Amino acid sequence: MDDKSLIETAIRQAKKTINIGLMVMVFCLFWFVQNQFYPDLFQGNDNISQLDSLQNDFVEPPMFELDSASIENGIHIPTGLIVDDGVQDVMTTCGACHSLDLVTQNRATEEGWKEIIVWMQETQGLWDLGDREEIIITYLGKNYAPENTGRRKNLENVEWYNL
Length: 163
What we know:
Order of helices and strands: HHEEEHHHH
Low-confidence stretches: none
Radius of gyration: 33 Å
CATH topology of the largest domain: Cytochrome Bc1 Complex, Chain D, domain 2
Strand content: under 5%
Helix content: 40-55%
Number of strands: 3
Number of domains: 2
Mean pLDDT: 84
CATH architecture of the largest domain: Orthogonal Bundle
CATH class of the largest domain: Mainly Alpha
Strand order of the largest sheet: 1-2-3
């Protein structure tokens, strides 16, 4: 071997040593930061079993509470729903997954609402509503049934002009 190849070999080994040293330093830095600021990060924890033991009591979010100050002309202003028997069940059940605008913009008969609920249960993961289902369907069928609007009223007192 000549001097040039020995120098190249020595430089390659020096680069390897420097790279390994840098990786060790970076690892030590991460280890130090983790132990300093997050000492329990990799500790075993039984949070999942604690969550499983919790009861599935539904707590209504505060924004879905009926308050007489938030009702105008029979409409619950924060949600846009018509205030009637079953509105609280609709707010908490339907509002748990999607905007209540989806309720107010749709119209269906009680049978139609039942089909929508079954579709959501089969395809969207909606849970069994139990006793609430009949209350919800009755409310929706009464307050968000199809409207027979017919044609508009005749225009009166219109001043026509030639084009």
